[in-house]
Amino acid sequence: MTDPQLVLTERVQQALGSAFGSEYATEDPLIRPSQFADYQANVALSLAKRLRRAPREVAQAVADHLDTSDVSVEVSGPGFLNLTLRDGWIAEQAGQRLLDDRLGVPQAAPQTVIVDYSAPNAAKEMHVGHLRTTIVGDTLARTHEHVGNQVIRQNHLGDWGTQFGMLIEHLLDIGEEQALGMLAAGDGNAFYQAARHKFDNDSAFQQRSRGRVPLLQGGDPETLRLWREFVDYSNRYFTKVYRTLGVTLTDDDIAGESKYNPMLADVCDELERMGVAEMSEGALCVFPPGFTGRDDQPLPLIVRKSDGGYGYATTDLAAIRYRVRDLKADRVLYVVGATQSLHFQMVFAAARMAGWLHDEVRAEHVQIGSVLGSDGKMFKTRSGESVKLTDLLEEAVVRAEAVIADRGYEPEARRQIARQVGMGAVKYADLSVSHDSEYVFDFDRMLALTGNTGPYLQYATARIRSIFRNGGVDPEWITGPIVLGHPAERALALQLLGFGTVVAAVADLSEPHRLCNYLFDLAQAFTSFYEGCPVLKAEEESVRQSRLALAALTLRVLLRGLDLLGIEVPERM
């Protein structure tokens, strides 16, 4: 089983080698879907100058040497190759997909892939800014597992630092029970702001807070106990949010800043011994080449401050060293806001200077764009505060329940469907745009049952299920064979063959929006098929079985694709 685009790429490359010599057999044929054929190859236009021949002449030479056993070819325009696959080949490949548990998704040579995502701060609430890092990271983790990689999820919590001196003292002031109750309920911001206000306005409290920090860093048992309470109660809240969202992070995936704290001194010592880090104005710094400030002077990456403290750069370098040396990572994905781009560029460069990153390991910053309000500015409440993620998710469910309120469901079923539709709408709206782009958060648009939305795809799967329910047929028992007659059957079958390549591309490029676009195109192709090709009422039994097979395969691909996106699908809608 092969994706048609890959088959045609191989065929055209063979023709290039036969026509112009083996040195041309690895050229990219530049094959793209076309409105004039199934695909179009534009390689003749890119090669014409090198070959010193007219593009149309080059295209004709390729066409003359092309294996046309499963494809017809036509030279058009200035030198395009229009490629049309034969119906029998498409039908045969679709039939094989129906019998394939992997639905054509290739099995990768296994790698160890670390996905660093979500990363909220202990003792603070999760807000809408954490939504994208959590959703995108979870989809990438699911996808890498599906293609056969060993995935290690890493939730890099902000669970260490001098702010805990202030927080612990405030906890002691108001009492453990009240403080931990606020954290468990997701009221961390109110707790943090109250502590900060006291720190800024009460000199005695400020002095106590500063005195608490060395006790924490020095391992004082009672201070560590209180710190652990902070982290544990924060994690209970985070876990509740993750369960609501339906993401796969667990407590076992927590690898916060505190994990790397014991390694920081050794990281600095090693950098200094290797000559990678040097003292500059009292601080230990790495100066990665190519990074300069506004004054055109080398830009420092500070790994130990002049007061002896450590910062994010030190922790991130310790994490890279640990992930490569101890976890044996082949690839590390940092699903973090785009505003951290320079930081990660410098951290990666410093790690390469130290030899902790090398050619066999890919470290990538999967940049996450901002979520905007309808005014085009950062998404905030009317009072100008960050929107609590729990409030946002609750509102999504309430609004989804209103959308399906007139469909006659029993209250419990309605609540269950509303939860699936609400979460699916929020996730899909996020995943369907490029992860480094900004997007406007709009409940009305994301909950629509038409257009490129999560509910539209959920509804498409529910409609396919209704076909089998009405026909008294289990889609798992459908085997075909598939025979293509109507143009809509052919278009649907051809679309189904692209699933494996799209999933592989998502894993390779870290671009979940590609899968969203594919699933939307597939749902649209099925809608055209459904409207033009009677399934249960087909006049001939062979046609009925073929169309049931196409419907069953579409259902399986939609369900698998939505599962990779972390989107649940109601049985009915």
From TrEMBL:
PROSITE patterns in the record: AA_TRNA_LIGASE_I
EC number(s) recorded for this UniProt protein: 6.1.1.19
Domain DALR anticodon binding span(s) in chain numbering: 457-573
Protein origin, superkingdom: Bacteria
InterPro entries per the UniProt record, alphabetical: aa-tRNA-synth_I_CS, Arg-tRNA-ligase, Arg-tRNA-synth_N, Arg-tRNA-synth_N_sf, ArgRS_core, DALR_anticod-bd, Rossmann-like_a/b/a_fold, tRNAsynth_Ia_anticodon-bd
Pfam families, per database record: Arg_tRNA_synt_N (PF03485), DALR_1 (PF05746), tRNA-synt_1d (PF00750)
CDD domains hit by this protein: Anticodon_Ia_Arg (cd07956), ArgRS_core (cd00671)
Cellular location(s): Cytoplasm
An example molecular function term from Gene Ontology annotations: ligase activity
The reaction(s) this protein catalyses: tRNA(Arg) + L-arginine + ATP = L-arginyl-tRNA(Arg) + AMP + diphosphate
Gene3D superfamilies: Arginyl tRNA synthetase N-terminal domain, HUPs, Isoleucyl-tRNA Synthetase, Domain 1
Keywords in alphabetical order: Aminoacyl-tRNA synthetase, ATP-binding, Cytoplasm, Ligase, Nucleotide-binding, Protein biosynthesis
UniProt domain Arginyl tRNA synthetase N-terminal: residue ranges: 6-85
Signal peptide: none
Broad class of where this protein is predominantly found: cytoplasm
Similarity comment text for this entry: Belongs to the class-I aminoacyl-tRNA synthetase family.
SUBUNIT field: Monomer.
Name of protein: Arginine--tRNA ligase
Organism: Microbispora amethystogenes
